[in-house]
C-alpha cells in the first residue's frame, strides 16, 4: 500500500509512533487469547507472539501528571509502546513474557489494577460530568469509582462472560450508557425551566431553540417585550438540547437521578449492536456512596452469576429466561410500566424517552 503524504499542521500520523516490531507485523496478527486476567497473548501468521498487559485506570481516564509519568516509565522499562483503550483503560504492548510478573507486581504496588480482559469486569467507561460539562444530571466519575470499588471485592469471582458497565452523565450519552451490559444514564425528572427575563436579555435565537427540540415540545410565547418560549412537559423527553442551545434562558430541572438499563452491546459480535433495556427508569443518585444505585447493580450481577450459563451475557440471560422472570429476579416491582406501548411487541422499553 502506498504511503499517503499528509500536509503539515494536522494530527500526527500514528504510524510514526509505532516501534519497528509493530510496523513489521502490521496486518499480520491472526488471533489472541487471554493468558490471565489483564494479560493477552497475540500471535502472527508466522507464529511470532506479542504480549499485552491491560491496566484499569481511574474513572474517565483522569490522570495526574505523576500517573502519566508512571505509565511512561513502565513503557520504557517493560514494553514496546502503550495505548489508551476505548473503554478508558491502558495497555502496555509488547511486554517480554519473563517480565510480566514483575510488571504486574509493580502495577499493584502503585495502587492500580491489572485486569479488564476476558470473563471479568472491564473498565467502567464514563463521561466527565461535573468535572468539565454543564449538562450533567449525575456525577458519572464518582459513580464509576463506587461501582469499581464494589467490583474489586469480586476480583477472584469467575464471571460467566465479560461484564461491561458504562455511565453517562445525561441522556446525551457522551460517555456511553445504554450500549453496555449494565448502563447508567443521568436523567432529569422534571422538565427544563424557562426564565423569560433572562431569555430576552440574552437575545437567544428563538427559531433555533424551537427547531432544536426533537419532540416539538417548545412553542413560541409572545411577550410585550419580545418573543420567549414555553415548554410542554407532556412532550418533553428531558434531553437537555434546549439548555445547550439557549443557556442564557433555559436550565434543566433540579430533580435529577439515574436510569438503569441492561443488555446493551456496542460491538458487532453475536447479535450485533443493541441498545440496553431500561429496567429502572429513575433511581436516586445520592453521593458519596450511591447506596440504592449500588444495590440495584449488585442485585443484577448476583442474579446473573446465579442463573447464567457459561459465556452468557446479561442480555442473553434475560432473553432466555424471559423478561418477566428476569425483571422479577433482579428486584423490579412495577414490571408493567416497563412494557413498550406498541402491541403486540410487548418488549421491555429500549429508549430513553421516559414517561414520568
Q: CATH first level of the largest domain: which class? A: Alpha Beta
Provide the residue-averaged pLDDT.
90
Largest sheet: 6 strands, antiparallel
Q: What is the count of DSSP helices, taking H or I runs of 4+ residues?
A: 10
What's the number of domains? 3
CATH architecture of the largest domain: 2-Layer Sandwich
Extract low-pLDDT stretches: none
Gyration radius (Cα, Å) is 24 Å
Terminus-to-terminus distance:
56 Å
User: How many DSSP-defined strands?
Assistant: 15
Strand content: 15-25%
The structure class reads alpha+beta
User: What oligomeric arrangement do these chains adopt?
Assistant: single chain
Protein described:
The protein has 356 residues and is α+β, with helices and mostly antiparallel strands. It folds into 3 domains: 14-114, Alpha-Beta Plaits (2-Layer Sandwich); 125-188 and 257-338, Sulfite Reductase Hemoprotein, domain 1 (2-Layer Sandwich), CATH 3.30.413; 193-251, Alpha-Beta Plaits, CATH 3.30.70. Helix content is 26%, strand content 21%. The protein contains 10 helices and 15 strands. It has helices at residues 20-24, 65-78, 100-109, 140-152, 196-202, 206-212, 241-245, 291-307, 314-321, 323-329; strands at 29-36, 39-44, 49-56, 81-84, 90-93, 113-114, 125-126, 165-168, 182-188, 193-194, 218-223, 226-231, 250-251, 256-262, 277-283. A hairpin with a 5-residue loop joins strand 4 and strand 5. The longest helix is centred in the last third of the chain and has 17 residues, at 291-307. The termini are far apart.
Amino acid at each position: 500500500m502506498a504511503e499517503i503524504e499528509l500536509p503539515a499542521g494536522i494530527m500526527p500520523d500514528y504510524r510514526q509512533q509505532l516501534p519497528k516490531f509493530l510496523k513489521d507485523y502490521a496486518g499480520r496478527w491472526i488471533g489472541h487469547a487471554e493468558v490471565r486476567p489483564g494479560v493477552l497473548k497475540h500471535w502472527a501468521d508466522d507464529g511470532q507472539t506479542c504480549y499485552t498487559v491491560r491496566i484499569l485506570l481511574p474513572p474517565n481516564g483522569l490522570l495526574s501528571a505523576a500517573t502519566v509519568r508512571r505509565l511512561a516509565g513502565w513503557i520504557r522499562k517493560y514494553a514496546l509502546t502503550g495505548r489508551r483503550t476505548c473503554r478508558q483503560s491502558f495497555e502496555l504492548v509488547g511486554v517480554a513474557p519473563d517480565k510480566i510478573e514483575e510488571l504486574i507486581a509493580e502495577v499493584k504496588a502503585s495502587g492500580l489494577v491489572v485486569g479488564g480482559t476476558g470473563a471479568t469486569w472491564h473498565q467502567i467507561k464514563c463521561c466527565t460530568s461535573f468535572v468539565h460539562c454543564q449538562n450533567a444530571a449525575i456525577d458519572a466519575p464518582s459513580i464509576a469509582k463506587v461501582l469499581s470499588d464494589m467490583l474489586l471485592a469480586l476480583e477472584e469471582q469467575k464471571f460467566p462472560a465479560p461484564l461491561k458497565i458504562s455511565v453517562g452523565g445525561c441522556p446525551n450519552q457522551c460517555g456511553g450508557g445504554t450500549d453496555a451490559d449494565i448502563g447508567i444514564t443521568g436523567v432529569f425528572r422534571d422538565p427544563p425551566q424557562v426564565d423569560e427575563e433572562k431569555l430576552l436579555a440574552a437575545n437567544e435565537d428563538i427559531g433555533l431553540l424551537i427547531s432544536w427540540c426533537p419532540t416539538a415540545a417548545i412553542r413560541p410565547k409572545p411577550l410585550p417585550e419580545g418573543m420567549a418560549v414555553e415548554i410542554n412537559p407532556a412532550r418533553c423527553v428531558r434531553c437537555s438540547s434546549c439548555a445547550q442551545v439557549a443557556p442564557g434562558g433555559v436550565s434543566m430541572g433540579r430533580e435529577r437521578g439515574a436510569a438503569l438499563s441492561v443488555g446493551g452491546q456496542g460491538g458487532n459480535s453475536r447479535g450485533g449492536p443493541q441498545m440496553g433495556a431500561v429496567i429502572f427508569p429513575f433511581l436516586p443518585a445520592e453521593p458519596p456512596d450511591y447506596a440504592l444505585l449500588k444495590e440495584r447493580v449488585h442485585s443484577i450481577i448476583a442474579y446473573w452469576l446465579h442463573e447464567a450459563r457459561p459465556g452468557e451475557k446479561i442480555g442473553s440471560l434475560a432473553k432466555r429466561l424471559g423478561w418477566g422472570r428476569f425483571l422479577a429476579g433482579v428486584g423490579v416491582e412495577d414490571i408493567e410500566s416497563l412494557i413498550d406501548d406498541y402491541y403486540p411487541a410487548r418488549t421491555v422499553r429500549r429508549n430513553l424517552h421516559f414517561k414520568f
